[in-house]
Write a structure and sequence with these properties.
The chain contains 25 helices and ten strands. By secondary structure, it is mainly alpha-helical.
């Protein structure tokens, strides 16, 4: 658990994002299998999961008890919330629910065969990473900020100016309360049985149980010492031990060693050796009906998503039903491939420097639930930061260099004239132009307005959202970024592709002038020369230069 927290903490702009911060996710064999099937691509880092497959073949579900961070959280929660279990209750209650974890495993595989990645709903490492990124980390930062409120007056009185003026900005995420509700449901299941999730619902546990069914590292009971006190039966966190304590379900045992520590006679041990059929049962069986039903359920889920009107099918480019404000992170692969490869783990949400990456809520249908998108009114995308691609474990967001990231156009800014102060109220406003790092906004003038009117040059705008973030209009901004013109590549250089399309993402320097005209308009007294005439110094004003041709989908 400590390693999991440390790695997630380092997945940040000021951490060590180039380190293997996604080590836990890369070690998940279920993630590796489903991602490879759904995305039709093998990420080399996911080969690390083969080590944990070997570990399961040798020692069973030891990952669940010693390495799984969600298991640690459930153990801590059960210590405070779980009811004391009677012997028969701990062993036999809800046993009919146990095959659900195998059904979920098969549904994941069946949906992956149709190109759909549903790991974000049920994979324990993905769920725990998302909870930590969107709930635990913001709560910790908020607690630090609250402590700072107490210490700041002390710092001011002692002359510690760094402490007196230190400010901590807490990250926030869309749907955090719903995420908290899901976490509470998961924890409160412990009121039914300890580790209810691990016993009955966890598909990764089901996979590891199948792999470890014949593992040589086994539980052994000395029949001469065992007095059938049933203490191990009552305390087993997964109810894997049969009554009287000698027989156990091999695929349900998580090798937690509680029975070894709690046995008053010292009759229980774990060691490598030959199988003892008299002391082992296979556990939940994956019969043909269960396998067939699970795979068909996954296929049905995949087909249901494919007929959803928001499904980003390859036949629709650009997507006719796609939400007009759905902006993916820079470096995101094309949308169908992105949704097939994104696990909704939340690593990029935690790492985002400006907190502009937010979990999506049905803008791309059910299959896009919790996938990252940019809320540019919340904050702009920092152009010097490329951390989201560095921490993505599956390559749904490509790891780009800063210069490549700068050329990964994520959308185009569009002026909403009904809300823009110069356009709608004839009031001077220069905020968007001042904030634009690429000089993509120029000013024009017409006969109906006395002030300069902002116009976006789409070939210079990379969609960073600085203008939308800083727009002074209350509510929705008067300049918004839309996905038209976005540049998303599965491979290859963004710099080369941008230059081939005539996109220019370097700012131009020039003198500011407060009078602008359209071509052919008469110069005002004391104003600048007619259109096309050279300015002093031989320069022609940017407003007189012809704007480049707009890309498809962009109207002037």
């Amino acid at each position: 658990m400590s390693l999991f927290i440390c790695l997630l903490w380092l997945a940040a702009f000021n951490g060590r994002p180039t380190w293997p911060v996604d080590l836990y996710l890369a070690s998940d064999p279920l993630l590796a299998a489903v991602h490879t099937l759904a995305g039709r691509v093998l990420v080399p880092l996911l080969l690390l999961s083969l080590l944990f497959v070997v570990l399961a073949l040798l020692m069973g579900r030891i990952f669940c008890s010693h390495l799984c961070p969600l298991g640690v959280l459930l153990d801590v929660s059960d210590h405070f919330l779980a009811r004391p279990q009677r012997v028969k209750e701990n062993r036999g209650a809800y046993r009919r629910v146990r095959p659900v974890k195998l059904v979920l495993l098969l549904v994941l595989v069946g949906a992956a065969l149709f190109g759909f990645d549903l790991l974000g709903f049920v994979d324990p490492l993905v769920i725990m990473t998302r909870f930590t990124a969107t709930l635990f980390y913001p709560a910790l930062v908020a607690l630090a900020d609250a402590s700072l409120q107490v210490l700041r007056p002390l710092g001011a009185s002692l002359g510690w100016l760094d402490l007196a003026y230190l400010e901590i900005i807490s990250p926030t995420f869309d749907g955090a309360l719903l995420m908290l509700g899901l976490l509470l449901v998961l924890l409160l299941l412990g009121r039914l049985q300890p580790r209810f999730w691990c016993r009955h619902l966890c598909p990764l546990g089901g996979l590891l149980g199948l792999l470890g069914r014949r593992a040589p590292y086994r539980r052994r009971v000395d029949s001469d010492k065992c007095n059938a006190c049933n203490r191990c039966v009552r305390l087993c966190p997964t109810g894997a031990i049969h009554l009287e304590g000698k027989l156990y379900d091999r695929s349900e045992c998580i090798t937690c060693l509680n029975c070894v520590r709690e046995c008053p006679e010292g009759a229980v041990s774990f060691s490598f050796g030959a199988r003892r059929p008299a002391q082992e049962q296979p556990g939940v069986a994956a019969g043909r009906r269960l396998v067939l039903g699970g795979l068909l359920g996954g296929a049905a889920a995949g087909l249901a998503m494919r007929i959803d009107g928001l499904h980003p099918g390859h036949a629709f480019l650009p997507l006719p039903h796609r939400h007009g404000r759905l902006i993916r992170p820079p470096g995101a692969v094309p949308e169908p491939e992105f949704l097939a490869r994104c696990t909704r783990c939340g690593e990029c949400l935690r790492a985002c420097l400006t907190n502009t990456l937010q979990p999506d809520w049905y803008r791309a249908g059910l299959e896009g639930l919790w996938a990252p998108h940019l809320a540019l009114r919340h904050a702009a995308c920092e152009q010097t930061c490329n951390v989201c691609g560095q921490v993505c474990p599956t390559g749904a967001i490509r790891p780009l260099t800063p210069i490549e990231k700068q050329h990964a156009k994520i959308g185009t800014a569009v002026i909403v004239r009904d809300r823009c102060l110069p356009w709608s109220q004839d009031r001077r406003c220069l905020i968007c132009d001042e904030q634009c790092p690429y000089n993509a906004i120029v000013f024009r003038h017409d006969a109906q307005h006395h002030v300069g009117l902002p116009v976006v040059n789409p070939n210079r705008c990379n969609g960073c959202g600085q203008c939308e973030d800083k727009c002074p209009v209350l509510g929705e901004a008067a300049i918004i970024v839309v996905p038209q013109g976005e540049l998303r590549l599965s491979s290859g250089s963004y710099v080369a592709e941008a230059r081939a399309l005539g996109l220019v993402f370097e700012a131009e320097k020039g003198e500011f002038q407060d009078q602008f005209r359209l071509e052919g308009e008469e110069a005002a007294p004391g104003g600048r020369p007619p259109a096309g005439q050279q300015q002093p110094g031989g320069k022609q004003h940017a407003a007189d230069q012809e704007l480049p041709r707009l890309p498809p989908g962009i109207e002037p």
